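Continuing the batch. This is chain 6 of the set; chains 1 through 5 are on the previous pages. Same settings as before, nothing changed between runs. Recording input and output for traceability.
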Amino acid sequence: MGELAKLGIKAAKSTVDKYRVRSRKTPSPTWKAFLKKHINDVVPIDFFIVPTIRSKLLVVLVVLAHSRRKVLHFNVTEKPTAQWTAQQIAEAFPWDSAPKYLLRDRDAIYGGAFQKRVSGMGIKQVVSAPRSPWQNPFVERLIGTLRRDCLDHVIALNEHHLRRVVARYLDYYHEWRTHLSLSMDAPNRRTVHPPDWGRVVEVAELGGLHHHYERLAA
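Output for chain 6:
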């Protein structure tokens, strides 16, 4: 429905709902209340692991903004440490741009050096309960999307290659991928292309793994 709307084609929500498979699970009202109150103040972070062609395990850190589902920062390393993770937070929020809350799990990587740096930046840490990834759902959903849309189809050669692949995917994710939670818009707002702008063209992204659609004058 988002892609149709961006092409100036109107489709009733009821028509789209008729063919869309939806999850039967309902979101936690407690989390919804927290998010509604602090949507512009909370930044969640998390790690995930990606194996390389030589069976090395690389670790990816992502820092997400709740309000527009934007990835504010990411980086890749083979050996994450508390110092390295703390440096990533400092790079994600230069000057006076630090958020009020940082949502994370209880991983031991968030040790003394990390906590000292975050505290020094004036950020309050919100720590999820043990074995409760559902308490950090948006970054977990982002990681799942990144895997399904990209990393499940690509074999990482090394750290540099993985960093480049993730960066290219995030360019597509921010500029073109529509989100139901954003009223079928992209994290970086997309302009609606009305029919009088011209014909619809398909543009390949990530070597043809994905596509976006726009109108161009004949």
